[in-house]
Design a protein that fits this description.
alpha+beta, 5-stranded antiparallel β-sheet
Length: 288
């Protein structure tokens, strides 16, 4: 269903206001994947997302939020293939904490949020989400092309490591898939909460990987080798995940992220530099 604009708002807005009992819409943000509004819902402020045709990842993300049930993440009140009604959190994200020199504290908060997200929900079946092997398909494709051209690139090495990790993974968890400092906000009532998940199924260690590449606007910080190892250690201990396995997932994640940029015809940012630093510290054979 395509979006058309009327008075600066998507045409579908009125239909969702009526169907879901919403009022007082105010534009909050507009991205490639959605038009976002604050609305009044049952006497409180909520967030209404109207998805664009590019918002397919938001649809799997809604199923992940539904599974989490508010444990470590914003609550989702209503959703369908074209819209989502979410809990509104107006507190700050983790960037100010890092800017105040509390980078390690921010990492501890991220680990605490991940532990909440990764708790199994008794009696709740795993939703239909994207498995990690499918999520890595572009890395595997890039590595195959490089091999065929006789190039032993970092993507070839990363694909080999990813294949090993994915072949011996633990039972799958519902993963956020995009945890970083700007996707966690503070709620005065409920503490630190994640939002905007991709909605993946796989090993918990993958959810810690992206954190080591963030905040992206601070390249001097995130490319610091000591900082990478220090924060990886914090995540490993807090999550109960083998340090080497966490580093391995961080390495393959960085290479996957670089492939996304390259496949879009753009140059990667810090991803390959950080992945190169991490690769030097991976010990083989890999283990749980």
């Amino acid at each position: 269903m395509a979006l058309t604009e009327r008075a600066g708002m998507p045409e579908r807005l009125d239909s969702y206001l009526a169907a879901w009992g919403l009022s007082d819409p105010k534009p909050l943000a507009q991205t490639v994947t959605s038009h976002v509004y604050t609305v009044s819902y049952k006497g409180t402020t909520a967030v209404l997302k109207l998805l664009t045709d590019a918002g397919w990842e938001e649809r799997t993300g809604a199923r992940a939020l539904d599974y989490y049930g508010g444990h470590g993440a914003v609550r989702i009140f209503r959703y369908d293939d074209h819209a989502q009604l979410l809990e509104y959190v107006d507190g700050e994200d983790l960037i100010p904490l890092v800017k105040r020199g509390e980078d390690e504290r921010a990492t501890e908060i991220i680990a605490n949020v991940l532990n909440k997200l990764h708790q199994s929900q008794p009696g709740v079946h795993l939703p239909a989400l994207t498995p990690l092997r499918k999520w890595f398909r572009q890395l595997f494709a890039r590595a195959d092309r490089d091999r065929q051209q006789g190039v032993e690139s970092i993507f070839v090495r990363a694909a080999t490591v990813a294949g090993k990790l994915l072949s011996e993974s633990e039972p799958p968890h519902v993963l956020h898939g995009d945890i970083h400092h700007e996707n966690i906000r503070y709620s005065a009532r409920r503490g630190w909460l994640a939002f905007d998940p991709k909605g993946l199924l796989g090993e918990r260690a993958f959810d810690a990987a992206n954190t080591l590449y963030n905040p992206v606007a601070m390249p001097a910080l995130i490319e610091d080798e000591a900082r990478l190892l220090r924060n990886a250690g914090i995540l490993s201990r807090a999550l109960g995940i083998d340090f080497n396995r966490l580093l391995s997932f961080a390495f393959v994640y960085g290479c996957l992220s670089a492939v996304w940029w390259l496949d879009d015809g753009k140059e990667p940012g810090s991803e390959l530099r950080i992945a190169g630093i991490i690769e030097r510290h991976i010990e083989y054979p890999l283990r749980h």
